[in-house]
Amino acid sequence: MDHILHLPTIMIVHALITCISTVVTIYMWLRARGSRILPLLVAAGIAACAAMLLHSARNTLPLFLSSGVGLGLGVLAVGFYWQAVVAFEGGKVSLVKASVGIVIWTALWLTPVFHQSMAARTIILGLLVAGYCFLTAFEILRKSKQEPLPSRSIAAFSNVIRGVVWLAPTPLSIFSAPAYAADGTTAPWFAFIVLANSMMIVLSLVALLMLAKERDEYRYRLASERDPLTNLANRRTFVASANQVLMQEQGGASLLLLDIDHFKTVNDTHGHAAGDQVLLAFSRVIEQRMPKGWLFARIGGEEFACLMPRMSAQKAVSVAENLRRAVAEMVIPVPSPLQVTVSIGVSEASARGVELDTLLASADAALYRAKADGRNCVRFCEPVILLEETAATLALAAGEQRRSVVRLRPRGE
Q1: Cα–Cα distance between 239 and 255 in angstroms, integer?
Q2: Once rounded to an integer, what is the mean pLDDT over residues 52-63?
Q3: Pick the residue with more confidence: 305 or 58?
Q4: Residue-range domains of the chain with CATH
Q5: Residue 207 burial (C-beta neighbours within 10 Å; 0-12, 13-18, 19+)
Q6: How far is the C-alpha of 71 from the C-alpha of 399, rounded, in Å?
Q7: What pLDDT, on the 0 to 100 scale, is given for residue 2?
Q8: Contacts from 218-227 at CB under 8 Å and sequence distance 24+?
Q9: How far apart are CA 285 and CA 230, in angstroms?
Q10: Can you give the pLDDT at residue 385?
């Protein structure tokens, strides 16, 4: 087995990879000085390089330097990497937690029994590093539902495998042979452990870079699909999703068109910051009452839409009435207590294949009627009545326009 893998060569390659990765990370940090992640990765890389340098000189340096300080720095490097992942996931970085491993290692090293026992050092080192690796994997998986990135499983897997690799020396040193014999020679299995650890380090670093790239793409996609203030779906996303639902849904659907009453007055009287607070509060109140499968979006300034699959018009009106009451009961402190109301128009698609534009036009007509009826009410689209009212309104408007033109004409025309 010694002829298959040459341990000094593996350790040199491992050291070179670590040093190159650290130099690249330092360069990235110099270009992005505001990063919370890169300085921790730099610290991890420097600690790992120092650990590899000290431990590779085990035959020439005193044991307390090569193993005591060297392996302690190796534990610290894994702790820093764990906290880098914590920072990547938006958590609070703790250098104390990152340093717990080296503190435990140093405290044990001061006991004569520990630094004189190769088996004890192997077991404790494996447990400390494996613990950090498993904590890193847990941190990566913890937010997989909130931020579903494809590379999360790869990143978590690489850290779990790395932890398992560091646990393997414990049974191997007990049942096979110690990592280092009394004459300084290494056990046949030790080279494989070092090689596997090197591979997992590279894989975990690459996986972290992949996660960063995927996160940027994910956030860009969300930015194009979501309203930046309320984080609801925007009009483009709503139209695309609603058309797809309407084409597939055999049980029909109902559409609510919601418009906050006198919103311009809120902005003019209390300021646009207060208007933003109203939009946020309104969005949360409605969103909390949206079951899974309904499409709720902000499609205009103070206008929102909700598509409810397999919902009859009668039930949709009841839902809309409950939402109207919920909005009327909410109080927004901006800075003095403020209450708003909402007008809601309802339309129904009784069969599959109805176009969204048709539903929106009907709901908009119903919303117009709710506004005309004094606001803070729900109206359902009644095509015949609405058509007559709309025609009368248009005729009246046209007549007023003609009379205005006549009044504006100079005398003699």
Answers
A1: 12
A2: 85
A3: 305
A4: 7-225 (1.20.1070), 235-381 (3.30.70.270)
A5: buried
A6: 91
A7: 46
A8: 218/147, 218/149, 227/297, 227/298
A9: 12
A10: 42
**Tokens standing for residue 321:** 């009435």
pTM equals 0.68
Q: Which residue has the tokens 């506004």?
A: 371
